[in-house]
Design a protein that fits this description.
Helix content is about 45%, strand content about 25%. β5, α6 (about 130-135) and β6 form a beta-alpha-beta unit. α4 runs antiparallel to α5. It has helices at about 1-5, 10-20, 35-40, 50-60, 70-90, 130-135, 165-169, and strands at about 25-30, 45, 95-100, 105-110, 115-120, 140-145, 155, 160. It starts with a helix and ends with a helix. About 25% of the residues are buried. It is of the alpha/beta class.
């Protein structure tokens, strides 16, 4: 998609993304699933910190925290980068993936054999994606990081964490 929108060769784009990953400006997230699915689905790329994404958005004129789509992208990058750092610092095997299914959750964290679906919700987000993911991956709980909740709560197998609280973890 990047190669098409920039009218560049896909190998050139892959080379640029690889260089950005090596310089640790961005990191990639692989699709969750079988080895075949991981290879077939494209990797998603997030900035290592939300401040890098924010600076880039500002540079291209897309920075507006009052615009829900911009704020949601920054929030998703915040959660993704925090989970990535946790995986890098953890002494245990911790995998960070995205859900490639239609209406899938934003992130899936896999620790040993335990899978945890995570959704980042800005504005009118419901728990339906998490309920579907809990059933699909046969997990006991899921996590919703949202700006619509003001305290950490656990209800019906979903852990609700306020975005601001998650940012301070």
């Amino acid at each position: 998609a990047i190669a098409q929108s920039l009218q560049m060769n896909s190998r050139t784009v892959k080379s640029i993304l690889s260089a950005l990953v090596k310089t640790q400006l961005i990191f990639d997230v692989t699709a969750f699933g079988s080895a075949g699915k991981m290879l077939k689905k494209p990797k998603q790329h997030l900035f290592l910190t939300p401040s890098l994404k924010s600076a880039q958005n500002y540079r291209v004129g897309r920075y507006d925290l009052n615009h829900e789509k911009c704020f949601a992208a920054l929030a998703e990058n915040l959660v993704g980068s925090a989970l990535h750092h946790l995986g890098e610092e953890s002494q245990q095997s911790l995998g960070l993936f995205y859900d490639a299914n239609k209406k899938g959750v934003d992130f899936i964290v896999k620790h040993l054999e335990r899978v945890t679906p995570i959704e980042v919700g800005i504005g009118k987000k419901t728990k339906s994606q998490l309920t579907i993911a809990k059933n699909r991956y046969k997990t006991d709980y899921a996590i919703l990081v949202s700006n619509r909740t003001s305290s950490i709560e656990y209800k019906n197998g979903i852990l609700y964490i306020p975005l601001l609280t998650f940012a301070l973890i």
